[in-house]
Specification:
6 helices, 10 strands, ChyE-like, glutamine amidotransferase, Glutamine amidotransferase, GATASE, Class_I_gatase-like
Length: 221
Amino acid sequence: MKALVIQNAPSTGIGLVGEQLRARGFALDIRDAQHTDFDAIDLGSADLFVILGSPRGVYERDVPWIEAEFRFTRRVLDADRPLWGICFGAQMIASALGAKVAPMGVRHRFWRENDMVVGEAWRGPWLRWHGDQFEVPPGAELLAMSQGVPQGFQRGRAVGVQFHPEVDADMVRAWVKEGQEGLKQDDCDGEALVAASIRECRDVAARLDLLTADILQRCIR
């Protein structure tokens, strides 16, 4: 089996989700979104498509690669191919399905359980690191929510996840380093967040295994 992964930022890789997919027999084909000819991608060339996170907004459609990725996402959805979107990837799916994606007015950077879940695999705690949020697309099933913010949805064979199941401590450390200015503006303690991530990632494997199994069952059927 093959998973085609769209990576939208150098520091936002597939991380622990990649380990889960490889353990299930997937070979990963990782593409840099900013240097990918999306129109040339054969939708029959992969068993699963994964779109990762980005510090950009999906509504920045004047950015050429974001517009190209949006058209690609619609093509995957129209073809009813298995699709998993994480954070920016989930927002991209929601937008392609006609839902609103917009800034929240605050940025969330913390580990937290979801308070509404379709099943315990979605409970967490999971890392939230985002300033935008999506509305649940028309006709989609809400899978998880935290403090009124949608954290997961499914429509057809597409699943969008707002939180970050893929992160390991090194990834969070890189994000904290890159985001120092924003962390100061938001009075967010980056060192404390890294320390929390080290603790959480020691125990994340079992719940991520359950979440991955649930998502793949929804996408690949």
